[in-house]
Amino acid sequence: MRISVLTAFFMLMFTSSAFAASTCWVKLWDDAGYTDRELTIPCKRDMGDFNHIHSDDGKKGFNDKASSAKWHVPDGWKLVLYENHHYAKRKMELKGKGENPDFGWFNDKPSSARWERLAPGE
Ligand SMILES: [Ca+2]
Ligand SMILES: [Ca+2]
């Protein structure tokens, strides 16, 4: 009994630290090379329409703007950027810890973002 309670406690600690704000986030920038307006997507908060959100400076809307990104996504998860509103059409997946200074073909395309679990083997 005592062991299972301890196990549950440590699992909870591990889970909560993996999803802490410092280790679970995505940042998008309006321009390539991490410049201009910035949008922070908090851990596991989906955004179905970039027209109706505010960038970090308080300005409304970030639709068809994102051009570069840095991210820290926990194991077992990915943040998926979609070309259209409500998670539709072409997409770009952000996994692990990384950065992309220039979205290339996906430049100025993202219109929604959703946190999704990785499939087995993904
Ligand atoms: Ca842009
Ligand atoms: Ca779009």
What does this structure look like?
With 122 residues, the protein is mainly beta. The protein has one domain: Crystallins (Gamma-B Crystallin, domain 1), CATH 2.60.20. It is 14% helix and 38% strand. The strands form two sheets. Strands 2-1-3-6 form a four-stranded antiparallel β-sheet, with no helix packed on it. Strands 5-4-7 form a three-stranded antiparallel β-sheet, with no helix packed on it. It is elongated, with a radius of gyration of 16 Å. The mean pLDDT is 92. The site of one calcium ion has 5 residues, from β4.
Order of helices and strands: HEEEEEEE
CATH homologous superfamily designation: Crystallins
Low-pLDDT parts are: none
- Gross morphology is elongated
Number of individual domains: 1
Main sheet? Answer: 4 strands, antiparallel
Secondary-structure content class: mainly beta
Number of strands: 7
Topology:
Layout: H1 2-18, E1 25-31, E2 35-42, E3 68-72, E4 77-84, E5 88-95, E6 97-100, E7 112-117
Antiparallel strand pairs: 1-2, 1-3, 3-6, 4-5, 4-7
The structure holds calcium ion (2 copies).
